[in-house]
Amino acid sequence: MIPLSWYLILSAALFSIGLFGVLARRNAIAILLGVELMLNAVNINLVAFWRYLDPTVMTGQVFAIIVFAVAAAEVAVGLALVISVYRNRKTVVADELDMMKW
Amino acid sequence: MTILFLITAVVILASAMMVVTSRNLVHAALWLVASLFGVAMLYAQLNASFMAVVQVVVYIGAIAILFIFAVMLTRREIRDKGPGLNKNWGIAALVSLLTFGGLAVLLSNWSGFSQPSADFPSGFDAVGALGNALVSPDAFVLPFEVASILLVAALVGAVYIAYNPRSGDNRK
Amino acid sequence: MNFWANPIQVTADWLMGLFTGWGMTEVLASILTQLLGIVVMITIMLVIDILLVWIERKVVARFQDRLGPNRGGPFGLIQPFADIIKLFIKENITPAGVDKVVYNLAPILSVFSVLILWAIIPLAPVIIGVDLNVGLLYLVAAGAIGTLSIIMAGWSSNNKFALLGAFRQVAAMISYEIPMVVALLIPTVLAGTMGMLGISEAQQGMWYVFLSPLAALIFLISAVAELGRTPFDLSEGESEVVAGFHIEYSGMKFGWFYAGELLHAFTFGGFWGILFFGGYHFFGLENLGPLVAAAIVLFKALIGYWVIMWIKYTLMRIRIDHMLAFNWKFLVPLSLVVLMVTALLNTLLRDTSTWVMAVSMFLSNVLIAWVVIEILRGRSRTEREKVESPAQPVVEATH
């Protein structure tokens, strides 16, 4: 049987990779891709805890489904913002969006 | 069983690495699809069949396609130019390694870290129990309704922000 | 166990015995047996695909008052083999500037998303690939993978027409997923389960098309839109975007797209038959054996496929903005109303006899349809009056 630790390490690794994507990428859309990876890591954690501690209590899965909804909402609004910024500033590189200096 | 988990884990982590290092953004979005598919395989191994299928429908069928559309709408030309990583990528790599190490140490100090899985009661209708939990008043109906309102707000907001009155296109 | 009562299990047991007799471990033998079953199923599906090419060409010919292929073999039966050979020996031109991996992966994913659907179709009470308890959502998920393959094809072709066709097709497909999901929820509510076997079993008394004909109609329309067939094939019209997302594909890669589309139509015909027309139930004929039940399901799938072809070769193409307006302003509210009424009636009348529930649900559907038609008539009357009103006289300056 696979101990719980494997799932937790996997989700920690996925979270760290997503964190690297958010911090190190130039393009704003690539930053959003990193955020998606982090949200998926959280979901893996939640579902693993649901399965390993008590599968008859549905809290873990409900939490994961709410995270799905939040991730979908955030991606929709985030990408709309990126598209709107591209229309006005003609760039999506995060470093070049620096009109508000302070 | 362990072989299946190892294959799934390799798929997830390798695709995630390719997501954050791909210079071509559409390739990065497609690697994200591969990674999300790996996560769906993981849910199936955890007896969460509903979650696995909803993961494919919501993430791959909607969010990944949204990413590809956004990438195509925000390019000055067909080819991507310029480096993919910004000038702070060394510090970012250090921070993410420290985060991974910190999380691993923190979790391994927890008493239940290496516990085996609880028994999955045979004949347990996980989908039915999930449905009951989402709509029953003494379970989670309130977060469910709030999530619906959040989605409506996001829908209206996204359409409003991205609306271009000049072209008046009616693509969703 | 009798072979005719449970052919799949008997064959699987024999193969397991054979493999373990050769000295393989249990796990390896079971994996090999399952792999063999998958390969056999896919082969059967692809052979049926070849037959579908022949059926398509004959039926379209009859709709257009001509004979169709009748030179290659008796009744033109060798014609699809000639087509396949032609596609194989055609030159596979890869245009310059395409993204090679994505370009080559797209037709494979497109057929893959259709073949995986056959894992959940219940051909008989004992012949089913895997009895998922979320079978209907699996159907939607496979459609999502198909959508992805079309975007990959359109983007990687390095061709503006392909991209435009792919965008339109994907916009239509993800829009029409919503009424399809809601229409799929109606058999779920009526049967109490999302599993395909459970829905087939629950139709033993009364087929769901009689309980909710509007749901069957909405599912058919959404399925035709998901398939990308006329009247919703804007991305493939030669007068619109040359050939849509498969402009730059030649040879067998185009063959994959074409065959995949036909098999997809056949699969959706099968789902229509299983979800609304009773699956393998046919007045008790399915009790003769699982192979007879499988033949019944395939026969219903053929009838569904014929209906989809009938729609294709009779109706004209719809413009993209009309298509999306039809979805968002008509199908989505209608499907939600039908779902709410069906769920309400199902809860209220769950304990009464089948006939009371059937008649009341059918009458409720008729009522909803009548109300919708009245609303549409009022709207079209105002439109017509606006168009046909006499031209306003120009006000002349008085001299």
Report on the structure:
- The complex is a heterotrimer of chains A (102), B (172) and C (399).
- Chain A has 102 residues and is an all-alpha fold.
- Chain A has a domain at 27-92.
- Helix content of chain A is 76%, strand content 0%.
- Chain A is built from 3 helices and no strands.
- Chain A has helices at 4-24, 28-53, 59-89.
- The radius of gyration of chain A is 17 Å and the shape is elongated.
- Chain B has 172 residues and is mainly α.
- Chain B is 69% helix and 0% strand.
- In chain B, helix 1 (2-21) packs antiparallel against helix 2.
- Chain B starts with a helix and ends in a 10-residue tail after the last helix.
- The model of chain B has no long low-confidence stretch (mean pLDDT 86).
- Chain C has 2 domains: 1-89, no CATH class; 95-373, no CATH class.
- Chain C has 14 helices and no strands.
- Chain C is globular and about 105 Å long.
- Chains A and B meet through helix 1, helix 2 and helix 3 of A and helix 1, helix 2, helix 3, helix 4 and helix 5 of B.
- Outline the low-pLDDT stretches of chain A: none
- Distinct helical segment count of chain A: 3
Beta-strand portion of chain B reads: under 5%
What about the largest sheet of chain B?
A: none
Assembly annotation: heterotrimer
Helix content bin of chain A: over 70%
Shape of chain B, please?
A: globular
The whole-number mean of residue pLDDT values of chain A reads: 90
